[in-house]
Write a structure and sequence with these properties.
Layout (H helix, E strand, L loop, with lengths): L3 E7 L1 H11 L10 H12 L14 E7 L1 H7 L5 H28 L4 H12 L8 H7 L1
Antiparallel strand pairs: 1-2
Helix pairs in contact: 2-3, 2-4, 4-5
Length: about 140
C-alpha cells in the first residue's frame, strides 16, 4: 500500500459496498468518489457540537490515504465528519440501487429477483443490508 492506514466508523452495508467495489482496505485518493469526499471532510475539519448518531456506525472501514493528506489535514475525522461521510456514502449507494432496480425491472425481472441479484452482486447478506430494507429503500 502506498498510503497510511485510516479507519472510519461506517454502517455495515457501507463498509461491505466499498470493500466489494474497491477491494479490502482500498487506497483512496481524490480520483475516486469516496476518497474525494473523505479528503474534503479532512480538509474542511468540520466540527460541530453534535455528538448524536455516531454510535450506529459499528463497522470500521479501513482505507489507505496518501500520507501527505493526513500530515497536512490531520489524522482524525470529527463526529460530524463521520456522519457526513456516511450520509454521502448512503446517497451514492441509493443512487446506484435506483439505477440497478430501474434497469432490472425495466427488463421484466420481478422485485424479489432484483433484490436477490443485488444482494449477491454486492455481497450483502440479511444482516448487512436486508431484503426488507432494500425493498423499502426502492
Amino acid at each position: 500500500m502506498g498510503g497510511t492506514k485510516f479507519t472510519i466508523p461506517t454502517k455495515p452495508y457501507i463498509q461491505q459496498y466499498i470493500y466489494n467495489c474497491m477491494g479490502r482496505e482500498p487506497e483512496l485518493s481524490r480520483d475516486d468518489i469516496f476518497g474525494s469526499k473523505l479528503i474534503d471532510l479532512l480538509e474542511r475539519n468540520v466540527r460541530h457540537q453534535d455528538n448524536d448518531g455516531v454510535g450506529i456506525f459499528a463497522a470500521p472501514l479501513v482505507v489507505y490515504l496518501p500520507l501527505r493528506v493526513l500530515d497536512h489535514h490531520g489524522y482524525e475525522l470529527s463526529r460530524t465528519g463521520i456522519r457526513f461521510f456516511n450520509t454521502f456514502s448512503e446517497a451514492v449507494i441509493k443512487k446506484e440501487l435506483y439505477f440497478y432496480f430501474d434497469t432490472m425491472t425495466g427488463l421484466g425481472l420481478p422485485i424479489k429477483e432484483c433484490i436477490d441479484r443485488y444482494q449477491q452482486h454486492f455481497g450483502f447478506n440479511e444482516d448487512t443490508f436486508s431484503s426488507d430494507t432494500i425493498k423499502k429503500t426502492y
